[in-house]
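--- STAGE predict ---
source: upstream dedup step, 1 unique chain passed
mode: sequence only
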Amino acid sequence: MPRNLYFIESMHSTDTKVEPRDHGGGLDSAIAQWGGTRAEWVDLSTGINPLPYPAPVPPVEDWTALPDTNAQAKLDRAARSFWNVPDGADILAAPGASVLIAAMPAVFEGRYVDIPEPTYNEHRAAFLHHGWDLRDRSADLRVVVHPNNPNGHLWTQEDVNLRQVVVDESFADVRADISLISRAADPGCLVLKSFGKFWGLAGLRLGFAIGDPALIADLRGRIGPWAVSGPALRIGTAALSDKDWAEQTRARLSADATRLDKLMQARGAAQVGGTSLFRLYAVDDATQFQNHLAQHRIWSRIFPYSKTWLRLGLPGPEQWAQTEAALRA
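--- STAGE serialize ---
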């Protein structure tokens, strides 16, 4: 697979430089260029569920006291049940999957990492920062995003049957049948989970590492005590325990993704990948398409390594009319 072009490595291995990574979001910049107010814009540049889990209101003590160990244990049990974590695998909750991504290169052994791309660019940045070198063959460790962002590619058990492997399942909760969590009990394996995507609560900052107890113990020591706030412990436990909401949400996301595909296909775009939280389309000119949508206060995602790829998240219920009008204009 092609390597991303927006990372520039120095010719000198001791002086590796990494350019700032591109991400979804950045609505303030879009407003600065195209005008309007936040209330007028529909942000489809991320893969966050537009109908978030109805979070319970935390009591005052969740804000005023240090996070309770019993609350942490409840969250861990809810996570084990929801994701069918195998016996022998340990679990660590953290303030967002990004914190785990930044820390985890230090807990693995080796020098060479294989990160098939294009994919979520924080993995590459984290390993380069920790002094690893990139190699797609004979690597000491492999990192895969499953399903991949942005093309939705699904990996197999054979793809992750290595001595050391990281499986980033930040978008896997849209389908209960695709997870590779059974691999988590194996030595040298970590599976990452993000709470912000499927549950739509990115601001809660909650993520999980599940896997080899030795690796988890090392990560736990690096992150330190009280990593997850009291409100996040309570809300995360409630959401992970609500399996009916999860099933209903999967059905709604699937229907909405199909609805968006039909609109884009009518506009001449080809659906080439994605998940039911974001769709990847091929268009004649991605920058031109993004500009057209921005004129109608719709923000989308394009990529520095492709002139034709356009990624759209799903509109919320009250945002479909504006989205449909922009696509038909």
